[in-house]
Each structure stands twice: as structure tokens, then as C-alpha cells.
Design a protein that fits this description.
Shape: globular
Number of strands: 4
Structural class: alpha+beta
Number of domains: 1
Helix content: 25-40%
């Protein structure tokens, strides 16, 4: 059966049986081949939905909760600086120029971010990523990004506050700005935790 017709589960089973050793660098280059094309596709898709002349194009790497070997790339746009998170790349798109004008930030996995922010010396290739990671953990991310790129774009909460009235009139629900309730860890029980790799019969 051709891969295009296979379900995600069938592809997962095929990958589980694959014993080939892959070069991580080659795999990374292969994964990055069409990123620019996908970023522009997302930017053009959102052009008529976002009223701002400049907006953020985001690429997020996300693991599938059920298929352990699958990493999905998600592309979308926001009219504000999105909340920073691991495995995220954010670019600034200028609608008037019809092009991406800045790479705002690229954050690696959470483990790599933590390691970079704790090291005193890193290779020059990772200096910028280290600075982003440090700003993230110090809670000064927006200030650093605005300073680095000489921009004044608002964060999500700032944007929502500025456009509050028009968003309410448009029927949008404005998120509460207060801190979320802390998670009650006493609710976790051994029988409630399910291993995604163990098949369930009923």
C-alpha cells in the first residue's frame, strides 16, 4: 500500500519495524527543506484575516500524543507576539512588502533551553539561542525581543487589552488576566494514568 493511502497507525507500525540508522543532521536538513514555503503559505492564508500590516508567522513542532515517532509541524499567524514556548520559531511578516522581514526567535526543546541558559560559555552558533533562552527563564522575553529587533509589537495580553472594546463587539471572549488556579496533584491516581503505548482491549 502506498504511504499516501496509509493511516497514521499503519505508518507508526511500519516505523516501529524500521531498524535503519538515520543521520540526525541529514534528517534535520530534510525536515527543513520546505519550511520557507510553508511559512509563506501560512502568511498568505492569514493576509485577509489579520488587519495589521505586520504580523507573526509561527512554526511549532509538536509530538503526537499517540504516535511516538510522529512530529507534526504546525504553521499559523497572530497579529501580536505569541507566547514563547519550546520548539517554536517565530517570524515577522510585512503585508505591504509581501515578505518575511525578520526572524524574531527560534526556541529549541525545553531540555536544550534549560541547558543553554545554565551554561557560562557556548559555541558562537548558539549564542543567540542562549540569549533567548535566558530571557525566557528570567521573564524578560518581550523586552529582549523588542530590543533585539527594534520593534514595538504588542504581546497577546497587551494586544487584547488595547483592542478590548472592538473584540467584545465582535463577539470574542477576552481571557481573564488573573493567574490560573494551581493544579491539584492529589487528583492523580495510579489507575488514572494511561500509557499511550499499551493497547487497551475495551
Amino acid at each position: 500500500m502506498p504511504e499516501a493511502q496509509m493511516t497514521a497507525g499503519q505508518i507508526q507500525n511500519k516505523l516501529n519495524k524500521d531498524t535503519t540508522k538515520y543521520d540526525a543532521l541529514e534528517l534535520g536538513h530534510w525536515m527543513a527543506e520546505d519550511i520557507e514555503e510553508q511559512l509563506y503559505q501560512a502568511a498568505h492564508t492569514y493576509e485577509n484575516m489579520i488587519g495589521e500590516n505586520e504580523y507573526c508567522v509561527v512554526m511549532l513542532l509538536a509530538k503526537d500524543p499517540l504516535l511516538k515517532n510522529v512530529i507534526r509541524r504546525k504553521f499559523y499567524c497572530w497579529p501580536y507576539l505569541p507566547s514563547p514556548r519550546p520548539n517554536q520559531a517565530v517570524f515577522l511578516y510585512d503585508k505591504r512588502k509581501q515578505r518575511i522581514t525578520k526572524r524574531l526567535w527560534i526556541l529549541p526543546s525545553d531540555m536544550v533551553m534549560a541547558e543553554l541558559s545554565s551554561l557560562a560559555v557556548v559555541d558562537k552558533r548558539y549564542k543567540t539561542m542562549q540569549a533567548w533562552s535566558i530571557a525566557f527563564f528570567q521573564g524578560k522575553f518581550w523586552e529582549y525581543i523588542r530590543y533585539e529587533h527594534n520593534i514595538d509589537m504588542l504581546s497577546e495580553l497587551e494586544y487584547m487589552s488595547k483592542h478590548r472594546e472592538e473584540l467584545i463587539k465582535a463577539g470574542c471572549k477576552i481571557p481573564a488576566s488573573h493567574d490560573p488556579e494551581p493544579f491539584d496533584f492529589s487528583k492523580i491516581g495510579i489507575k488514572k494514568v494511561v500509557d499511550a503505548e499499551i493497547p487497551v482491549s475495551n
